[in-house]
Amino acid sequence: xxxxxxxxxxxMLGAIFPDSDVVREFFSHNPMLMLxxxxxxxxxxxxxxxxxxxxxxxxRVVVKWRKWEATSFIxxxxxxxxxxxxxxxxxVLTTFGTMIWSPLEWSRPAWDVLxxxxxxxxxxxxxxxxxxxxxxxxxxxxxxxxxxxxxxxPAPFLVAKIGKNVGAPISDATILAAIVLLTALxxxxxxxxxxLRVGYVNWNRAGxxxxxxxxxxxxxxxxxxxxxxxAFTAEQNxxxxxxxxxxxxxxxxxxxxxxRAPRGVYEVRMDLSxxxxxxxxxxxxxxxxxxIEHTYYPDALPNQWIDEARQLPEVQKVLWFARFPVTRFHKxxxxxxxxxxxLRFPHMQPGRAASFTYRVRxxxxxxxIAKGWMGR
Length: 376
Prior knowledge:
Layout (H helix, E strand, L loop, with lengths): L2 H14 L6 H4 L6 H4 L11 H19 L6 H20 L26 H16 L6 H12 L2 H11 L6 H15 L13 H37 L5 E6 L6 E8 L2 E8 H8 L15 E4 L5 H7 L2 H9 L3 E8 L2 E8 L14 E6 L5 E6 L3
Antiparallel strand pairs: 1-2, 2-3, 3-4, 5-6, 6-7, 7-8
Helix pairs in contact: 1-5, 4-5, 6-7, 6-10
């Protein structure tokens, strides 16, 4: 374990460290921790100096104990800080929200540039590292390349399935293009050892450059999508409480515009590729679509059951977390059912509730029979 490996491991573990907060969920039966605890103090910019000092100190202790070569304590603090900051930055880019100012403030900033699990961005970051691994050992490149190609080959079909479920279908041409690209990345450089002429570091540098480019492109796409949502609110003359343009898998072209109004949530599904390719045609004058189609999700009319459900501590936490909440109510025999959904999270199947839906069931005498997340 030389100095460079200590630095590499410290940087990698620093990038992983913020999600160590999920360990608490393994030892707790509190279903609200995902909302109130995850992405809080371990993702906090205010707590960052504390974590870097503690983790750098532990690293020095381990290095001294194992008699490994290591860098200075100050340098280790900087390395751990870079790793943790990279995680926080990428989390803030997503739609889930990250409590970067905790414990001073428990708000959840979210820049809505990347989907919570962005498959395209993940592939851009991961594949160059795997390709570099293929050519690390010249005698093993053939079986390594074939192994990774076989592992990744089903990925485009899986992503297409997920995209279809959330209302952002991916065309067969796109699936075919992804397969061809994976084949080119994993297998073509093996021919005559072409991949060996690209250094290990250069593969990773190329991945970093493309990843940064993708974030910039996604940021611009978010800007275009948000302008369309604003145009929709102006067209409908809506009283806006909350507004956002959220990415859908694979997230660069597909966006979900959401507007919280006093009586419900308006949703505008967008495919930016249509407007983009239309604008590329000769004589095109506008990037904007002529008609903005939307879906409206009204809140249930107020009643005593909804009022009682809102008084529950768990429901108050759900409503604190939700950016685009919708309240539903229905009767099942003598029982009353109240549901609170956050439309920020896509509908996995038509006719089903959004992924984050909390349900409260009352008996005819007004007592709570059951409460909890749907589907869990």
